[in-house]
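Justification of resources, computational component.

The compute hours requested in this renewal are based largely on the per-chain cost of generating structure records like the one below. Each record pairs the submitted sequence with a full structure-token output. That output is archived, and it is also reused by downstream analysis tasks.
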Amino acid sequence: MLTQLNKLGGKHGIGRLDLVENRYVGMKSRGCYETPGGTIMLRAHRAIESLTLDREVLALKDDLMPRYARLIYNGYWFSPERELLQKLIDESQVTANGKVRLKLYKGTVLVVGRESKSDSLFDTRIATFDDDGGAYNQADAAGFIKLNALRMRIAANLRRRKR
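The structure output for this chain reads:
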């Protein structure tokens, strides 16, 4: 699959990178890379994750991925910390499945459709501003907003007292 995506993506100029890297030993180096297949696969996979992973699970995975990549880049593939992170990432991917439709055009990869028949957390009956069958009570928002803003009200009160 990667070979085919490399050919297809290469024709469309997808996955070209020119970046300055911070090497482990302290120097900076410039790297020019072409990763058309990897770029396409990543975009498709992220589209599936957006459907199937819980918000906080996805945020945690996104927070940890730079550290994971740094471990690999620096040669720590067999380290206990990389192996521990791998278990967490593997577990996060159990429900990441489905189909994605993409369009490739002039260096861009556009997601034009996605579905996961068995593990999608997206529910059109709930994600609506119309009748959601009681899944969401808009009156609950007022209390949520007030509670969520509590730390900011406390800080504002402290600033007022200091004036």
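The longest strand covers residues 108-115. The two ends are 65 Å apart (CA to CA).
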